[in-house]
From TrEMBL:
It comes from the Eukaryota. Residues 11-31, 46-70 have a biased composition (Acidic residues). It holds the Pfam family U-box. GO terms for molecular function: ubiquitin-protein transferase activity. This is U-box domain-containing protein. Residues 1-81, 139-166 are annotated as: Disordered. One of its GO terms (biological process) is protein ubiquitination. Residues 68-141 form the U-box domain. PANTHER family: WD REPEAT, SAM AND U-BOX DOMAIN-CONTAINING PROTEIN 1 (PTHR46573:SF1).
């Protein structure tokens, strides 16, 4: 029994030390958990901001896509929206200045390679009108965005101690 008692007594002493070590480890684990929780919170705040920024960028890209000109409005040579479209005898439309330059260099229709002269060109009034309507609609869609940007700049300017107008 004496030996058993020693074992028990020794076990209690060791158990006491182990209990203190376990408490210290538990405290460290709790601290670590708190740190992980705090970092997760700060990360989630950053992630939310990033998601909001991504959503804003996607919305802006969608607006830009909406503002892309319909293919018939784009000159096939310059790849720019036409302002003064003209029609060739072959039925293709071009920006007047662009096709005139083409005719001066080489008097051929760029699409059909048939002879083409300046006198063969006819104004494409219907296409010109559609392009003008599209430009007006696009400008109306962009105006509220520009107003918002001006308002935001004014708010920032006022927050910086300015009057609120530039």
């Amino acid at each position: 029994m004496g030996q058993e008692g020693g074992r028990v007594g020794g076990g209690e002493e060791e158990g006491g030390e182990e209990g203190e070590e376990e408490e210290g480890e538990d405290a460290e684990e709790e601290e670590e958990k708190k740190l992980h929780a705090l970092s997760a919170l700060s990360m989630s705040g950053n992630e939310e901001e990033e998601e909001e920024e991504d959503a804003a960028e996607e919305e802006e890209e969608e607006r830009e896509d909406d503002d892309e000109a319909p293919e018939p409005f784009v000159d096939p040579l310059s790849m720019e929206v036409m302002r003064d479209p003209v029609l060739t005898p072959s039925g293709y439309s071009y920006e007047r200045a662009v096709i005139l330059e083409q005719i001066r260099r080489r008097a051929l229709d760029p699409m059909t390679q048939e002879p083409l002269q300046e006198t063969d060109l006819r104004p494409n009034r219907a296409l010109r009108e559609m392009i003008e309507i599209w430009r007006c609609q696009r400008q109306r869609r962009q105006q509220p965005l520009q107003d918002e940007e001006k308002a935001e700049k004014g708010t920032v300017h006022a927050a910086e101690g300015g009057v609120g107008r530039e």
